[in-house]
Amino acid sequence: MGVTPIHAIAPEHATHHGTPRCSACSLRAICMPPELTADEFARLDALICTTRPIRRGEALYRTGDTFQSIYAVRAGSFKTVVMHRDGREHVTGFQIAGDPLGLDGICAGKQNCDAIALEDSVVCIIPFAQLEAICREMKPLQHHIYQLMSGEIVRESRQMLLLGTMTAEQRVATFLLNLSKRFKARGFSSAEFHLRMTREEIGCFLGMKLETVSRMFSKFQREQLVQANGKMVRIVDPEGLAQV
Amino acid sequence: MGVTPIHAIAPEHATHHGTPRCSACSLRAICMPPELTADEFARLDALICTTRPIRRGEALYRTGDTFQSIYAVRAGSFKTVVMHRDGREHVTGFQIAGDPLGLDGICAGKQNCDAIALEDSVVCIIPFAQLEAICREMKPLQHHIYQLMSGEIVRESRQMLLLGTMTAEQRVATFLLNLSKRFKARGFSSAEFHLRMTREEIGCFLGMKLETVSRMFSKFQREQLVQANGKMVRIVDPEGLAQV
DNA sequence: CGAGTCCTTGACCTCGATCAAGCGGTGTGG
DNA sequence: CCACACCGCTTGATCGAGGTCAAGGACTCG
Fold it and tell me: Among A5, A53, B58, B221, which one has the highest count of C-beta atoms within 10 angstroms of its own C-beta?
């Protein structure tokens, strides 16, 4: 069976690979500041004039690549992986449609992690130097970029809290509820979804081994909190899950 | 004995509390983009016209406070603490002279953590709305702020790697080497320094209990890697520490 | 249909948490 | 000025959550 992303872009946009338009994008509300004028959208459309398809398992960028653009996930999903010189790996995040990618590269002019597609995916390419130029003239967009980056900082500090203080059980519960919330924000079911990542990748994100992740799924199943069948997950009792 | 910060600002600046000047600040190289003209510095000095002293144990801001400004540590040191509704706490970072504070507040317009002074300290106050305005006109400063925020993202993802994959021993070693590097970058000794935080705060930052932190200090002492006497730390064998 | 991946489950072990005791330095009140 | 209380730190003994190792099952893909 081919890989068909559940969270796909609408077909009428998918055909416009050469000329995507933010002004017409279904992810506009997630990606973009709300109060842009038609004229401002036109300038954005001129900036973000290319998309790029990435096959499952391939890298959008790798650690050390020269930083030039940031990206927005248009369809599909990614993981970002940082690596220690001794080979230790850690997944720092999973990005789905509407999420930004590449913000870590601005700092040193080189990407600081690998971004790997979890399924066949498409990203919008946003040349950063040009984005900066437009931001100097478009206050709402400028502020939006600051918010985006600050949001990433907040997300990561929450993840540190999770890694630093929670039990394996609480981490997995938090992970599922977070995914659920994000799917809901994008108009998909918050109760039932398809995990695009393996147990090992989840474990690597949550700071535990894949066996432990599996055991927690089984435990939640037994306690009637979720129904998990391989990568299909159905959240039965979100409140119960939240107070694990 | 009073609390005398080792890493103090030079006396001639300490007296200028009402009118700090970036152009004359010893932390300029850490805080600011390198290539500003005199004119540009003048505009910055006009923006950052106030400092604020914070006593040991007091908060610069708390979670939920309305976000208006970002800050730069001018003297002293801070910890940032996030809290889960159930009371679980986690230290997300320690900030010393030259480090930024408050970037997490841009996202939601409210601060997302508590920033607590570890000793009597002074911060520079940078009103964010005005900073944004200046950034629209000063390209190097604009880029610097993006780099600052990206740097915070990178720092946090390194901390996630630490929390997710390292043993207690490796975490403490990494922590000491990181502090050492930062002190060195500010012109202080990289070999010997005074910890301003308690074992408990270190543990809370590294995802372990204070007893474990203490045991690791003792272990490193036995192995001749560091000499630790309460809060005074001397790094004897940085290479050895690095390959723990 | 067979090989490879991914997932689940069991048995055992280890690292770090927990509990507990004691020490040294500091600040405070008599 | 001393006694005492408190806080932060160290160290030992014990325990348990999660890691490790191993076996087998379910799916996918060539």
Answer: A5
* 8 A C-beta contact, residue B226 and residue B191: no
Structure tokens, A173: 């519960």
pLDDT (tens digit, 9 = 90+) per residue, B118-158? 999 999 999 999 999 999 999 999 999 999 999 999 999 99
CA A177 from chain center: how many Å? 15
> Could you tell me the residue ranges of all domains in chain B?
11-161, 167-243
Nearest Cα to Cα of residue A188 among A226, A223, A235 = A235
Would you identify the CATH topology of the domain B11-161? Jelly Rolls (2.60.120)
Which tens digit of pLDDT belongs to each residue from B169-195?
Answer: 999 999 999 999 999 999 999 999 999
pTM (predicted TM-score): 0.92
Q: Name which of B14, B172, B197, B23 is nearest B96 in CA terms.
A: B197
pLDDT digits (tens, 9 = 90+) for B22-77: 888 889 888 888 888 889 999 988 888 799 999 999 999 999 999 999 999 999 99
CATH number for the domain running over B167-243? 1.10.10.10
Mutate to test the interface with B, among A67, A79, A107 (most CBs of B within 10 A): A107
Does the distance separating the beta carbons of A88 and B161 come in below 8 Å? yes
DSSP B115-145: EEESSSEEEEEEEHHHHHHHHTT-HHHHHHH
Cβ of B154 and A104 within 8 Å? yes
Mean pLDDT confidence for A136-145: 95
Using N-to-C axis directions, what is the helix angle for A139-165 and B199-206, rounded to 10°? 110
At A130, the amino acid letter reads Q
Q: In a 10 Å sphere around its CB, with 0-12 CB exposed, 13-18 middle and 19+ buried, how is residue A89 labelled?
A: middle
- With an 8 Å Cβ cutoff, are A112 and B207 in contact? no
The Cα diameter of chain B in Å comes to 56
Locate the DSSP E strands across chain A: 50-54, 59-61, 69-75, 77-83, 89-96, 100-101, 114-117, 121-127, 192-194, 226-229, 232-235
The Cα–Cα gap between B121 and B119 comes to 6
Q: Is B143 on the interface with A (CB under 8 A)?
A: yes
Rounded (5°) CA angle B51-B103-A83: 130
Structure tokens at A59: 């890298």
Residues of chain B neighbouring A132 (CB-CB closer than 8 A): 139, 142-143, 146
Alpha-carbon distances, residue A14 vs A19, A124, A224 (angstroms): 10, 12, 39
**Among candidates A157, A164, A204 on the partner chain, residue whose Cβ is nearest the Cβ of B207:** A164
* Residue B76 near residue B5 (C-beta atoms within 8 A): yes
